[in-house]
């Protein structure tokens, strides 16, 4: 995943960074933690460039009162204009490590020098406000969520094929050639993972071929009752 600069997406903040290379740290299994009452959280995952941001932006614009991202924790320094508690919760590395030891995270990963994670508390804050928390996370994060007791519903957004994904990533024009290659390598792994998860009944697959159709399918999934 990327240059740090492209980690930051339009507000509301994603549940965890997507635009960096796969986590170097081996994911740790969070032992079961408290889950909150309220709407069941939704995980949306898929290779970089599949259209998650495009679709979620539309969903958040259409239903501002219904859906919300959780605020992730990070050890990276705030960028100009970033507000603590809004874009991220900015904490030190020792503090982050303490939270890991306390099983405070649903999922966490190291990207480059920095740690990022989604805490149970951050998701609870959204669900206790009566909103459906959306987590936009990559494959390793999904695995951690599945090992937790979050009870999230999972949607895997898939590109129509690998060549089209490559076209979109290049067409987006946000990434250097090296980043595009890294994203594509990672995308192959994510596509295989998603296919097996959907086949095993552990998530719904949506192919983003036609954007309108894919949006409607994602919307329907997100609006569906638990
Ligand atoms: N159905 C579609 N047909 C053609 N282009 C699309 C479609 N869906 C999205 N795109 C385009 O593909 C590019 C990648 O989409 P987007 O940035 O939303 O992906 P993403 O999954 O959020 O990626 P990342 O995980 O890196 O944030 C964008 O330029 C977007 O406009």
UniProtKB/TrEMBL annotation:
> A cellular component term (GO) from this record?
cytosol
PROSITE patterns the record matches:
GUANYLATE_KINASE_1, GUANYLATE_KINASE_2
Enzyme Commission number(s) of this protein: 2.7.4.8
The answer on whether this UniProt entry bears the keyword Membrane reads no
Pfam families in UniProt: Guanylate_kin
According to the entry, every stretch annotated as the Guanylate kinase-like domain falls at 39-223
Answer yes or no on keyword Nucleotide-binding: yes
Q: Which GO terms describe its molecular function?
A: ATP binding; GMP kinase activity
* Family matches, as InterPro entries: GK/Ca_channel_bsu, Guanylate_kin-like_dom, Guanylate_kinase, Guanylate_kinase_CS, P-loop_NTPase
Composition bias (Polar residues) maps to 1-19, 26-39
Q: Which domain of life is it from?
A: Eukaryota
Q: Which UniProt keywords apply?
A: ATP-binding, Kinase, Nucleotide-binding, Transferase
Annotated region Disordered: the residues are: 1-51
Q: Return the CDD domains for the record.
A: GMPK
Q: What class of enzyme is it?
A: transferase
Query: Which family is this protein grouped under?
Result: Belongs to the guanylate kinase family.
| Name of the molecule in the record | Guanylate kinase
**Source organism per UniProt:** Trichodelitschia bisporula
């Amino acid at each position: 995943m990327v240059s740090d600069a492209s980690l930051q997406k339009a507000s509301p903040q994603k549940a965890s960074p997507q635009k960096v290379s796969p986590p170097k740290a081996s994911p740790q299994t969070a032992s079961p933690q408290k889950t909150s009452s309220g709407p069941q959280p939704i995980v949306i995952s898929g290779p970089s460039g599949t259209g998650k941001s495009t679709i979620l932006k539309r969903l958040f614009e259409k239903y501002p009162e219904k859906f919300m991202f959780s605020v992730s924790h990070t050890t990276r320094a705030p960028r100009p204009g970033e507000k603590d508690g809004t874009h991220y919760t900015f904490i030190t590395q020792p503090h982050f490590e303490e939270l890991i030891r306390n099983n405070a995270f649903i999922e966490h990963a190291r990207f480059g020098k920095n740690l990022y994670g989604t805490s149970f508390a951050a998701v609870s804050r959204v669900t206790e406000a009566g909103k459906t928390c959306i987590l936009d996370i990559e494959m390793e994060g999904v695995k951690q969520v599945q090992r937790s007791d979050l009870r999230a519903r999972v949607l895997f957004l898939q590109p129509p094929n690998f060549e089209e994904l490559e076209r979109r990533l290049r067409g987006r024009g946000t990434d250097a050639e090296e980043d595009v290659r890294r994203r594509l390598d990672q995308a192959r792994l994510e596509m295989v993972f998603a296919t097996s998860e959907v086949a095993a009944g552990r998530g719904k697959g949506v192919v983003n071929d036609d954007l309108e159709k894919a949006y409607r399918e994602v919307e329907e999934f997100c609006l569906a009752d638990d």
